[in-house]
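In response to reviewer comment 3 from the previous cycle, which asked for concrete evidence that the modeling workflow produces usable outputs, we include below a single protein chain processed end to end. The sequence was submitted unchanged, and the resulting structure tokens are shown without manual editing.
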Amino acid sequence: MPGKRYISMPSRCWKRRDRQWIPQAVAQTVAQGKLTLSVPKAVGRFVIHPLMMAFFHRYPQVDVCLRLEDRPLDFIDDGIDLALRITDTPSPGLHGKPLMPIRHVICATEAYLQQHGTPYTPQDLRAHSCISLGETPADARWKFRREGKTETVQTYGRYAANHTAVRLDAVRQHLGIGSLPLFTAREALANGDIVQVLPEWEFISSYSGDLWLLWAGDKHMPARMRAMIDYLSETVPALNAGSTEPAK
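The workflow returned the following structure tokens.
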């Protein structure tokens, strides 16, 4: 058309962002687009979700789909970019890094302990109402370790729940002594809402391990994935750095 000039911009060389056309090579270095992050439910609720607001401020062009699921997912079939898993042995073929150890504690309120007494040994738990995971009978057999010595005690209680937030609330409601991941109990412990029971003993849970950040490959990694990896590598270990770990 007379009086107007048109410039051909092949899609493989240019990309539109904020109403401006920029070279594709530059666009690949800018963290932008949608990222899908798969996390265990409790980790997502208590560890990752509280960090997301600051991530959005730092990377305003990245959208996040946070999938809170405890079942294993396939990176390709389920469209997962990054995954957090609690394990000591990540799946072969995946890239990743450990972010923090997952430890468990047993806790109660001061009011509960004043009414029912404070246990001083694992065997004392037999006289208490204990709130366990409740998925299998083994979840009520609590195992402890101290100075190389291991003790197992069969616990009993009127309430069990396979969600950490529910067990935390039950403990806060003075229903008994509950088993909790430290990342779930940390804030309530710091606020004095609950106290750790048998702090000199390490509570051994089958759901312990390291929290690993995993991805399928390093080649041609989008900038949004690198941004999330760097962000979680910075912020998640910092959450654990200031806490008091259970006695070993």
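The helical segments are 24-27, 41-48, 52-58, 110-116, 164-172, 182-191, 223-241. We consider this sufficient to address the reviewer's concern, and the full set will be provided in the supplementary archive.
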